[in-house]
Amino acid sequence: MKSDKREKFSTVINKLICDSVKKRATDIHFNCFESDAKIRIRVDGVLQTVGTIAKKEYLEICDALKEMSGLSMDEKRLPQDGRCLLSIEKKPVDLRVSVMPCVFGENICLGILSKEALCLDIGKAGFSEHQLGTVRKWCGKPNGIVLVTGPAGSGKTTVEYMILNELNKESSNVFSVEDPVEYTIPGVNQVQINPRAGLTFSSTIRAILRQDPDVVMVGEIRDFETVQIMVETAITGHLVLSTLHTNTATEAVLRLKDLGLEPFLIKDAVTGIINQRLVRILCKECREKYVPDDITLQHFKLKKQEYYKAAGCKSCNSTGYRGRCGIYELYEPGHTTMNMLLKGCSDEELRGHALGEGMISLFQDGVSKAEQGITSLEEVIRAASGVI
User: Fold this and answer.
1) What does each C-alpha distance from 367 to 133, 346, 380 come to in angstroms?
2) Longest dimension (CA), the chain
3) Considering Cα of 284, then 286, then 292, then 297, what sign does the dihedral take?
4) Has residue 386 got a pLDDT over 80?
5) DSSP for 190-223?
6) H helix or E strand, kind and range, residue 330
7) What distance in Å separates the CA atoms of residue 263 and residue 70, rounded to the nearest whole number?
8) What percentage of the chain carries pLDDT values higher than 90?
9) By the 8 A CB rule, do 249 and 335 touch?
10) What are residue 41's DSSP bridge partners?
C-alpha cells in the first residue's frame, strides 16, 4: 500500500517538475505551514504560487522527494542535501534538493539545473558591444585575475561558465575548482572540492599548477589562503577567473585588501572586475510605450523620452516579462587604485573616482537597456538603484 502511495506522489512530483521546466523555472519551493503547504516556483528570478496541498499529502510528497534524492526519510530534525537526475521529455534535468526543518514541518527547495536551458554564448549575456570587447580583451591576456562580482543569485557563475566556454580551446589546458560543479563542460577539467578529504580550494589550485594549466577558474574566493595562491598563479603566467560577493566593482578591491592582499599585488594581479545584476526582459508581444512622470525623471536624473513597461499576455504567462539578461559595470584597477588603497580610501571615494574616469555604472547600463526597450525602468530601479 505504501509503495502504491509513494508511486502516486512520485508521479505528481514528476508532473510538477515537468510543468515547471516548461515555464523555465529555476527553483521549486515547498513551504510547510500549520495546516497546509504552499508550492511556489521561481521564474525569471520572481516567485509565484502554483498551488497549495493538505498537510497529510505534503508529508507523503516529502517522503517521495527524499526517496528520489537518496535522503533519509527518518531524519526530520536536521537539514539534508541531495541530488537526483530525471528525464523530462527525454531531456536530462538535474535536481539539487535541500531539506530544511521548520516550525510546522520540513521545507524543501528543488534547484532545477537544465542543460537544455543553459546558454554558454557570452554574446547573449547582455554585454554592450564595448563591454564585450573589454571582457574579451581581459580574458585574452595570458595571465591575470578576472573577477565576476555581485550578490547571490546575480548570475556570476553563469558568466564565469560563458567565459570559460569561450576560453575552452584545443590549444588550452583549462581547469575549474568548484563547490559544487553545477554543469559539466566538455573539454574543461572540472574538480569538485571535498574539504572533509582535505581537498580545499587552495590545496586543489596548488595541485592543478603541477598539471601545467593555461586557465584556472576558482568558484569563489573565501579566504586569504585562496586569494594568495590565486595571485601567485596569476603573476606566474596563468589566467585566473573567480567570483566575489560585493555590491559594486570597486568594492571588490577593498574586499581583497580586507582579506590581507597588499595594494601593489591587487594592481599587478587583478586585470579587471565585472559587477553585475540580472533584470527581466520585457515580453515583446505585449510591452507598452509610456513616458515616466516628472518626479521619477528628476529623482533618477533621466531624460524625458519614451520607455517601455510590462503589460502581460498569454506568451509571458501574464507577467509582462520573458527571460533575463545582465546589467554590468566594468572596472580596471591601476596605479591610482593602488595609491588610493594605500591612503585608506572608502568605497564611495574609489567609486566616485572610477565614475569620474568614465566607468559606466550598473544603473547607467540598466537605463541604456531600458531606453532600447530590452527591460523596464522598474526592473532597473529594483536591481540597481542602490548602486547608482
Assistant:
1) 20, 26, 7
2) 73
3) negative
4) no
5) EEE-BGGGTB-HHHHHHHHHTT--SEEEES---S
6) strand 321-331
7) 47
8) 76
9) no
10) 28, 48
pLDDT band for position 14 (50/70/90)? confident
Query: Nearest CA to 286 among 304, 313, 268?
Result: 313
CB 158 within 8 A of CB 251: no
Beta strands 215-218 and 288-290, pairing class: unpaired
Q: Grid coordinates in use for 342?
A: 594605500
Q: At what angle do helices 2-22 and 55-68 cross, to 10 degrees?
A: 80
- CA-based nearest residue to 42, from 338, 321, 329: 321
CA distances from 200 to 176, 213, 263, 339 (A): 13, 18, 26, 33
What pLDDT is stored for residue 6 in this prediction?
Answer: 60
What are 97's strand-pairing partners? 82, 110
Q: Decide: 255 and 246 in contact? Cβ < 8 Å.
A: yes
DSSP 236: T
CA distances from 189 to 175, 193, 208 (A): 5, 13, 10
Contact 176, 184 (CB under 8 A): no
Measured distance CA(337)–CA(254) in Å, rounded: 10
